[in-house]
Amino acid sequence: xxxxxxxxxxxxxxxxxxxxxxxxxxxxxxxxxxxxxxxxxxxxxxxxxxxxxxxxxxxxxxxxxxxxxxxxxxxxxxxxxxxxxxxxxxxxxxxxxxxxxxxxxxxxxxxxxxxxxxxxxxxxxxxxxxxxxxxxxxxxxxxxxxxxxxxxxxxxxxxxxxxxxxxxxxxxxxxxxxxxxxxxxxxxxxxxxxxxxxxxxxxxxxxxxxxxxxxxxxxxxxxxxxxxxxxxxxxxxxxxxxxxxxxxxxxxxxxxxxxxxxxxxxxxxxxxxxxxxxxxxxxxxxxxxxxxxxxxxxxxxxxxxxxxxxxxxxxxxxxxxxxxxxxxxxxxxxxxxxxxxxxxxxxxxxxxxxxxxxxxxxxxxxxxxxxxxxxxxxxxxxxxxxxxxxxxxxxxxxxxxxxxxxxxxxxxxxxxxxxxxxxxxxxxxxxxxxxxxxxxxxxxxxxxxxxxx
Length: 453
Prior knowledge:
mainly alpha
């Protein structure tokens, strides 16, 4: 760290800094953004959500490959989704670990470590022995690989969001931060396309025998490209900026809980519907369309693929809209729309008619796209640089643990408990209530300079 301190006494209020065209430290605000910054934020999310998406889309196949122990298919599928959820339990730990390192030592090299860890764990799943080969040990190895994925992904998203936000012009921060989440949908889309192609060209026997390995192994070239991009980055928070914000936090998590607890709780509340919506609309819906709607696997995967394509196209628009109208109104409208549309959209998806079912899934994907396009800019504007990585990562990943990885499991449990094919929709309605209530407490932060201290 540099030893020369700027006096924090002259720091401007965030709104004043934005109007004056300066950062909170008094330096010139960035007027443009390096394309490598956008690529660095996007590529990590692509890898993370591709890896997680592959597992979710292949859940019915993996339940046979790793858990075929004489139990009924529903029990095996529940075990598969429980393993899916296991990675999410460890995401907050990853957020704390990598967030601490990122806030203490800078963003760029930590982001390289997260993408490398995620990639290696995914490739490991692709070469695991099956239940038929080694019995129950296969399931234990799968859980171990998923745990590594969970820790790595917990550190990925908070750092990528903080990095891109800190490198973005204040007036276009919503648009550029939406590209991080665009990478999330692009990764899920890539996973959906890969699985769709596999189910279209391979028989179910070939898919269960060896075809399921291919998408996991394809993570290797994706991860290597991401690693190359991130090793070439300069950091997003300079020594001078940290000095002006009274230096680095020696214990970011402690400072976060002591001084920024309301912002952390808002991050958690806003992320509740984001995760529930993501994993119900883009991951679980494929299983629901097959088991409840009666569609073939190929039809269900194509429906999800179309939904992801539309959501990807719409997301930068929502980010740009938040730069113009504000974060709060976009978040409120999206959350309310989710709550209103969930039940009728699931009713259409349950009717067994393909085209209306696809349109219903597409409609349900749009408010999710809006939430994803706006939240990262909102989160970055809540926290100072000293704890920004940790704050985003911890709040975001606590929600992922509670309602993200567990969402498919909750949906299956609700279906069994109630016998109603609309049960997953009511889960979304409950999550929407939490996020609407949280959004109502937000102060508008559009266009403000990011704080350092």
